[in-house]
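Annex B. Sample input.
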Amino acid sequence: MTAWPRMPPSLLPPPPLPPLPVLTPTHPTSMSEHPIHIALVNAHCSTAQVQGLLQCSSFDIILLQEPWVGTINVQRSDSNPHRMDITGTTFNNMWESFLPSHSPDDICKVAAYMCSNLAKQLLIWNHLTLPFSGTNCLVLDIVSDDEAIHLINFYHCVPPTGHNLHPLLASECDGVVPTVLCGDFNTHSCMWSLPSATLSPWAIPLEEWFDANNFDLISPPWTVTWISDHPGQTSSILDLVLLNAAGTISDQFSDASVSFADSLGSDHATLSWMWTPISTIPSIVPELLPGFMIDDDLADSWAVTFPCRAPTPLSDIPSLVTEADFLLTDINVTYAALFKPRRRPDPRGVANLLLYRSRWAATRAWS
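Annex B, continued. Sample output.
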């Protein structure tokens, strides 16, 4: 048998490389195209309950009461070899978290989460130096396009005697910017509590502060928000959502609803509401209506512009109809030359009237 020399296989040309991807720079877009769904939830310091809310809920912003806050990392350095605990709250890569100013030994009673996709579209300012901000109060400024709102998440930790509302009662809220104040106030009042509740001694000063800062309830009064596990305690209304006058006038906030099912087993109900930014309201071409918008200051101009012509002799019904047609034509021509036609009101309502105030507030907040 003749052994043929083995020839190396012919080299095939390498496959062509795929084209390089075209990288297009992206920029934060304007506000989400749907109303923003906000919820107030008490987590009872349970990271499992917080993760359940973050994984399963359909809310865009979650304001937490009694969140889990603990050690999430340990920091050491050559200059400081001793252990330094880094505190934080439950992590979820689909959400951005916010905590108030605190020291490692503090117990934070409030926190906030915002969907990451939404957070990329907004300017968010976590106020850490306000007189009433601290471990029991978180204040967020949310700015989008030309409007801004305040969200205040407050928890009233009642001491053995008296109350801990002094920092809040000694402050004033900005009345120009729409502001939502919500939280567990641990207060019984005739304004929202059940008739069987014993009124809190500090209820009247708190009610007066609400009135002085033009806050009104948007959560339903006399609707239970806390159910006790102990047979000797009765259910009550501890969690509230309030909106100031600027928010009410803007007509961009819905009333709050109460749901125990959304709180995933907590003894506190979830209170949720909608905020509809101006940018989410579709603009439509204004529909023209018959007639004109009369301006009394142009009365003299109207008299000068009105056509002067010889009247048609009125001898019979047809001549009367002809003269009436001429008169109506002259009136409409004069109106069209001086006045704007009537239009159907903007569906976005009076929210546009507050746009200039919101622009000023947004500029002041970020200056």
